[in-house]
Amino acid sequence: MTREVVAQALTCCRQYTPDWLIFRKFLKACSFLALWMTMGLFLKSPCGICAQNDCVMSAGAKGVKSVTLELGGKSPIIIFEDSNMKNAIKATLMANFLSQGQVCSSGTRVFVQHSIAKKFLELLVDATKKLKIGDPFAEDTTVGATIHEAHAEKVLSYITAAKDEGTTILCGGERVLMPGKLAGGWYLSPAVVVNCMDNMKVVREEVFGSLACVLEFETEEEAIKRANNTDFGLAGAVFTKFPLILLYMY
Q: Torsions phi, psi of 13, nearest 5?
């Protein structure tokens, strides 16, 4: 046995995070998903939305504790017309639908150059529809269940909001009722959303679910400006075969 203890915190809501959990002096790392507690170490490392992390950083300052923050993301993927389409499709699938989109660094704003957008969307939608929803322990399953009902409902509410704002859902965005031992699980079909605008809720906010927003662009300058137009800053990717584009964007 070691002095480390791993405990599960079943909420990511600040009002349900007691002060003793933040201020405990033997806290090694604090996460809204897991607590790593070791006597004498003073590191806080939470994962969650910005408002929650404000509270943790303030608490850490009072005890002069080191603080590392992962603030969530709305990360961009930029796909240029000269890119390897096959690789770009694979990356988009992984960046949006891995772990049902429940990944902080998910690349959920997919910027595609206008000249290849039609072909890209055809391939992306076809590949997305082929993803198998099922038992996560099965070798051929590529989509498992959303963590719980409340979060699944939240993801579905973003789908509804996207429709209300005028987007088009090319595929997915619905609950899938599974048979047998999987019955009652909250399985959602991965969604590809187009006709998106940068100021839309579904584009601005972190959904944390299987929902990819595809946006078209014309020039490198436009792509950079729009990719950086976010309150988050966690990850990003660029697909091109032209080294000078990478140097320019860097």
A: -95, 130
Residue 209, helix vs strand vs coil: coil
In tens, the pLDDT along 9-47 reads: 333 334 444 554 444 443 444 333 333 322 233 333 344
Find, among 147, 139, 50, 137, the residue nearest to 102 by Cα. Answer: 147
- Phi-psi sector, 100: left (phi>0), alpha (psi -120 to 50), beta: left
Domain that holds residue 31: 5-67
DSSP for residue 32: S
Structurally, the chain folds into a number of domains equal to 2
Q: What would the pLDDT profile of 199-237 be if each residue is shown by its tens digit?
A: 999 999 999 999 999 999 999 999 999 999 998 878 899
Is the Cβ–Cβ distance between 224 and 96 less than 8 Å?
Answer: no
Q: What distances in angstroms separate CA 31 from CA 9, 105, 246, one per listed residue?
A: 8, 16, 35
pTM: 0.78
Q: Does one domain contain both 46 and 157?
A: no
Same domain, yes or no: 114 and 217: yes
- Sign of the dihedral defined by the CA atoms of residues 83, 85, 90, 93, in that order: positive
List residues with catalytic annotation: 70, 104
The DSSP secondary structure of 123-187, one letter per residue, reads HHHHHHHTPPBS-TTSTT--B---S-HHHHHHHHHHHHHHHHTT-EEEE--SEEPPPGGGTT--E
173 Cβ contact partners less than 8 Å away, ≥ 6 residues apart: 156, 159, 188, 189, 191, 193, 211
